[in-house]
Amino acid sequence: MKCINHMDKDAAAVCNHCGKSICSDCLFMDKGQAYCRDCIAVKQGGAKKEERSPVLAAVLSFIIAGLGQFYNGQVGKGIIIFLTSLLVVPWIIGIFDAYNTAKKINRGEIAVKKRTGCLIAFIIGIVVSWAFVFFVALLAAIAIPNLLKARMSANDTLAASSLKSISSAFESYALDHEGKYPARNEELAPYLPEGYINKKISGYVFSLYLRDDDYKIEAAPDKCMVSGSKIFTIQKGGILSSKRCESVSIENQ
What is the pLDDT of residue 47? Predict the structure, then answer.
């Protein structure tokens, strides 16, 4: 004999009130007598017991940690699982708990407390939280590239200005030494107190090539398109030129 509600399960008893064959999942005992779900509901209060879908409870908990517990009327448990869901394990446990709790509710082992307002408030809170996270992430996606671009532009400007200062020091040295340029960087110290050569300043590295009748100074970003976007070169007479560091990287490949 099969259960009238679950045709794939054998009947465990017959309802004493309506005579339906029922399986263990549909069986409710009251004072030693067997009842089906509908009859026990009538006996205990005249209304049919509220049911929960175990599958739906598990799916809700999978989508949002704790939502299955809210669906089952367990608000406190749902909040705890949601707040600890970043640890992953409570989230997984919550999925199985929601499923098993829904089955217990259907068997009458756990009383259902209707808390629709709490469920709606929880869902609204989740939606608002995710909307806030999305908004912050969107702002970061827009702001961070602009900040990096602004920093690169400032570094480029400073590098070009520094090269002009170094070149001016070379030209001043040549005026004082019959048109000859310094053979060593140290000779430039009285004209250029701040050292630039072979140092990284604001994301740029400065290199110097000397001859007594010529010079060339180069400023290249330490990290192309991160600390700077251009490679600057200044030569005898203060002639400044530049090129994108990306083009140099491609040529060197």
Answer: 47
